[in-house]
Design brief:
One of its GO terms (biological process) is gluconeogenesis. The chain has 248 residues and is α/β, with parallel strands linked by helices. The protein is built from 10 helices and 8 strands. Strand 2, helix 2 and strand 3 form a beta-alpha-beta unit. Helix 5 crosses helix 7 and helix 9 packs parallel to helix 10. The longest helix has 18 residues. The protein is globular and about 45 Å long. It starts with 6 loop residues before the first strand and ends with a helix. The structure holds glyceraldehyde-3-phosphate (G3H).
Length: 248
């Protein structure tokens, strides 16, 4: 773990009703433990403002799961970055592999979304990762480097977070091992430093089947500055166990 304060981020994806948010917030309020990392929950857009209220007084930031590249306009069903900020959100995930796969999002579009997020005062969490076929073909580092370079916003990187999420490890129960994570994160850090001096400030999260049982090892892996948790972030006890696993 580097000097960067780790970030434990939960992505609820398309899961969660008001009652689920209430149970989760009640459990977080009753939690006697703590975390050395910052905590973030990205609920579905319908719960964004309610989550800000539900977590009032708790050290839990709230973020969106996606934003449009434009600040407003005729884009039915989309959400603009200033809307997330106005609801009290401070982060937004962009370029998640599920959006890249389901909506054909390109690196250029992800870059535009990250720039829109920054313009609205949000911290973008830019997701990149290789498919199983790309890993088996030995293309992992080239794929993630190209995606990183293509998805990063122009200019100051100090407020950017990058999440490495191998597509084959998302929701599958498969997790990249510590050596695989360390190799990719070291490469991403080298690329970030080569782009701009502010690349040192970019938090590098790992995502893909992070659970209470593997969080400590992942969080202790060199160049890992936090985790992006899907399924396990829906269960307060699991999210708490992962948050508690942050090393000193
Ligand atoms: O955004 C989160 C990632 O897609 C990981 O999801 P997962 O923890 O359910 O594998």
């Amino acid at each position: 773990m580097s000097a960067l304060k780790p970030l434990i981020a939960g992505n609820w994806k398309m899961v969660g009703l008001p009652a689920d948010l209430k149970s989760f917030a009640d459990a977080m309020r009753a939690w006697s433990g703590g975390s050395r990392g910052g905590l973030l929950i990205c609920p579905p857009a319908t719960l964004l403002a309610a989550a800000v209220q539900a977590f009032d007084g708790l050290p839990i930031a709230v973020g969106g799961q996606d934003c449009h590249a434009k600040a407003s306009g005729a884009h039915t069903g989309d959400i603009a970055a200033p809307m997330i900020a106005a609801a009290g959100g401070t982060f937004v995930i962009v370029g998640h592999s599920e959006r890249r796969a389901d909506h054909g999002e390109t690196d250029a579009q992800v870059k535009a979304k990250a720039e829109a997020a920054l313009a609205a005062g949000l911290t973008p969490i830019i997701c990149i990762g290789e498919s199983l076929a790309q890993r088996q073909a030995g293309e992992t580092l080239a794929v993630v480097e190209a995606s990183l370079r293509g998805s990063l916003p122009s200019g100051d990187l100090a407020r950017v977070v990058v999440a490495y999420e191998p597509v084959w490890a998302i929701g599958t129960g498969l997790t990249a091992n510590a050596d695989q994570i360390a190799e990719v994160h070291a490469h991403l850090r080298k690329v970030l430093l080569s782009i701009d001096g502010t690349g040192a400030a970019v938090k590098l999260l790992y995502g893909g089947s992070v659970k209470p049982g593997n969080a400590a090892e992942i969080l202790a892996t060199p160049d890992v500055n936090g985790v992006l948790v899907g399924g396990a972030s829906l269960v307060a006890a699991d999210f708490q166990a992962i948050a508690s696993a942050c090393p000193a």
